[in-house]
Each structure stands twice: as C-alpha cells, then as structure tokens.
Amino acid sequence: MNPNDELEVNAYVDGELSADQQAELLEAMRQDPELARRACELNQMKAQVRLAYAEPPRPDTRAGNVVKASWRAIAASVLLLAVGMLGGWLLHANTTVPTADPARFVVLDPDGRGQAPAVASDGETRIVFHLTNPDQTVAGELLDEVEDLLAAYEADHRPLRVEVVSHSDGLDLLRMRLSQHKARIGELAGRFNNLTFVACQNSIDRIKIEHGVEVKLVPDAEVIDSGVDHVVKRQREGWSYIRV
Amino acid sequence: MIGKLMIAGLVGLMTLSGAVSAGSAYDKQKVVYHINYDDPRQQAGAMRNIQNHINAVGKENLDLRVVMHGNGVSLVMYPDALDSVKKFKHANATEQMKATIDGLKDQGVAFNICANTLKGRGVNYEDHLYNVDKSDIVPSGVAELAHLQAEGFTYLKP
Question: pTM to 2 decimals?
C-alpha cells in the first residue's frame, strides 16, 4: 500500500472524506482487500482508543478511605486525560473540516457503507421512500411528492430527512442513460441538503452480470450494498417507510 | 401420547394468549394501508386483504386506516367525475366498490384522503368522491403515513 493510500484510509476512518471521495475509496477497497483490511484495523483501533479513554474506571467503593481517595485521584486523572484527548481530537477534527458541504446529509459514513447513524434530534421526521418501479411517470410523481414534502417542512421550520432508495428496476431513476429526471434530481439534491438519493449495489451488480452493462449513476446518487437491507435497517431505526 | 399432550398444551397456551390479547384494549393492532395506484383490480385486491385481515384478527382488535393519495384517490371517485377531473385515468367507485367501502367503514376502517392531491388535481370531495367527510381529509398523504408509523402503526402496501 502506498503512503497516499494510507493517508486516504486514515482520513476515511476519521470521517474526513467527502461523499464522492468515500465512494471512490470504497470502490478501491472492493478491489483491494489489503486496503479494506487496513481500514478495518484502523476502525477497530479507533474504537478501542475511544473505549479505553472515554470512561474512567469505576472506583471500588468497598475499599478503605485511603484507597478510595487514591482511586478518586486516579479516576480524576484518567478523566482529565480523557477530556484532554477528546478535546484535542475534537480540535483536530475541527481544523480538518471535510472539503464537501458539511451540512450535506450522507449515507456513507466512517463505519461502513450504509451504516449512517440516523441520529435524529428529537422530533425530526425521517422518511425512506423505496422505489422498485421502473416507470418514469411514477418516479416523476414521487419527485413531486418529495419536493412538496421538503418544501412544506422547510416552510414550517420542522426538521425532516428524506432518503429515496432505488432498488431493483427502480434503479432506472438514478441511471444516467435511463433516467428522465436527471436535471430534476440534481436540482432537488442541490436545493435540499436533507434529501439523499441512494442506489443499491446489488442491483448494479445484477445488471452487469445479466446484461453485461456497466451502470453509470447520476452524480448525486450514493451507493449502498443492499437496498432491501437498507430499508429494513431504517425501519428498525425508527424511520417511516413508504413503498412507492 | 407425549406428542398429543404437547399439542394439547400448545393449543391451550395459544387459546390463553388469545384470550389475554382479546381482553386488553392496549393490544389493538394498528395498521395503515397505503393506496397510491389506480388499477381497479389491485384496489379491489387491497379491499379484500383488509377484509381478510379483519376476519383474522377481529374488528375489535384493530385500528385500521386506509390512506389514499395521488392516483389512489380514484378508489372513491365516481366514474362520472372523470368528465370534469382531467388528471385521473380511472375512477373506481362503482356500485360494488361503494358497497365494499361501506362494509369496511361499518367495521371501523377509516378512509383518509390527501388534501394536496385534491388541490393539485382539482378534485371537489363533495361532488367527485363517494362518502368523504371533511374530517376524512388529511393535509398530506405522505406526511400522514409517516406520522402514523411514528405512532406505532404497521405500514402495508398491498
């Protein structure tokens, strides 16, 4: 692995890559198991560091006073260390802001593909639309609805997140060659940073295997492993689900 | 012999748990059916699904809603209305469908309609739709579906 790759993987694990860069690296990882292994190791290390320093060990309350005091001191120093490290880490994170629009809601995240933390502040409405229909009229009606919804919530200052998951034949909406709504998708994605278009990798792979066609997606599409998995996961996370 | 005993035991358990769930008002199943398509056969199939659902669970154990938006509003649209409402290809409130809907309503099923669709497609609910009350209209079909799921409703799209 060359030093550039090492840098890139580190940036990826720290969540500092833009959506496009992430997608590119993920593609590279698919082809280079060594790269994927390295990302996995780094992720694990990061998690261990967090685990080790985020929580100070609990003092043993049954011990004598003297011992208690020393435990407290140790706990305090560990806590101080943790706070310091966390502070430094945050400071570091702050100085290396991702190059892409940071407000943009991305599905891809440092912990893997499609594992986005749907950390929603209270009261945020989260809806995942599941599109499996190739009919571009139906897809157009979906975009109308999504736009109405986003505009209404924006006007009322109510928090909302929307994902459109194109899966199976529904993938056509996001295909450069077949979509009749490319410009509209670009316009909507640019206007609303709480809207994400998601394409299913399994569907892309199947098209390649069955038809020998290399699928090209519109620039605003993000790719996740499995559309079905993703919508199930979203429902488990409390998202509302609407089958288009 | 042991097998028979086990089966008897299982049946007993099931009866018991059935009795418990029927006895508690909090165990009501909450389900929302989503209709946004205008194919009359598919819509009739959906109504059949709902009736079967009620038959299986019992109407007293169900809070069942139907949310219609977009083309789905055709479910309750009078066929004559197509002359004045141009943005619909189908209007499926035939005599038979009206009877089916009435039957489901009698069993406690609520039929809700999207106001955005009515406005966007120039539908007058009093003239063009069968048996729709003002209170049946929700501001947005999609938002209603999201809201109901947040309230614990199970989403089904037949």
Answer: 0.62
